[in-house]
Amino acid sequence: MADSINDKEAERWKKEGNQHSANQKFEEAIRCYEKASSLNPVDEEIYFQKGLAFMNLIRYQEAVESFEEALRFNDKEARYWLYMGINYFFMGRYSKAIPCFNMVIEIEPGNLHALSNKGSALAEINRHDESIQCFDKILELIPGDVNALFNKGISLQKLKDYKTAVGCFKDILKIDPQDADAWFELGNCLARTDNCKEAVKCFDRVIRIEPNHAEVYDAKVECLRSLGLNDEADELIAKREMDEW
């Protein structure tokens, strides 16, 4: 009877915690989850929700510890592994994040979040061949996925496979001709294959779409100088200095 009362009271605290989380009152939510887990210490969902609250407060280590508690009761739940991996990723602990994403993929082979995050984590530690495999798997599941194409293109650039990277960015631009980042990276690829004339056209597209793009002007100036167009490069620098002033 006492256990039944405790379970009901724990459920009440958990629901109150969920309500606080929905209202972005995460400190209050955590206090509720802690009361809930003290009454029902085997409810894995309480620890999971507490982990999400810690994550929203950018308290990643405490979030990881909460997800570990949830996994202690159920290590076959993909969500727990996924969010533990995401928190390790946010902490910059990519080598710890990757096994978490592997566990998700083992449980749910088509989990797009795990594949994407694993690919990004691998790219962060310069394992670009493996990261590309993750993005290719996403593209098998969702042909034309823009994020997968973009991330694959970036990894291909890191491997100096500019020709294949060009194809990724062009595929993005077929889907969204106004994607400034894709135009910028396409321009970077073309510049690295000594096609600065076409690269400048890409950088001009970036400027039309996103005039305050942080890096495009330096990239265009470098291409103009490579083409021997030093006067044009100097004019662009002067114009930028005037605009910023």
Keywords for this entry:
about 240 residues; Serine Threonine Protein Phosphatase 5, Tetratricopeptide repeat; single chain; about 0% strand; 3 domains; mainly alpha
Mean pLDDT across all amino acids: 95
Hey, roughly how much beta strand do the residues contain? under 5%
Give the biggest sheet.
none
The CATH homologous superfamily of the largest domain is called: Tetratricopeptide repeat domain
Q: Share of helix among residues? A: over 70%
Q: How far is the first residue's CA from the last residue's CA?
A: 74 Å
- Shape annotation: elongated
**Name of the CATH first level of the largest domain:** Mainly Alpha
Give the low-pLDDT segments: none
Output the number of helix runs.
Answer: 14
What class do helices, strands and sheet pairing give? mainly alpha
Write up what this structure looks like.
With 245 residues, the chain is an all-alpha fold. It has three domains: 1-74, Serine Threonine Protein Phosphatase 5, Tetratricopeptide repeat (Alpha Horseshoe); 91-176, Serine Threonine Protein Phosphatase 5, Tetratricopeptide repeat (Alpha Horseshoe), CATH 1.25.40.10; 177-245, Alpha Horseshoe (Serine Threonine Protein Phosphatase 5, Tetratricopeptide repeat). The chain is 80% helix and 0% strand. The protein is built from 14 helices and no strands. Helix 1 (2-22) packs parallel to helix 3 (44-56), helix 2 (26-39) runs antiparallel to helix 3 (44-56) and helix 12 packs antiparallel against helix 13 (216-226). The longest helix has 21 residues, at 2-22.
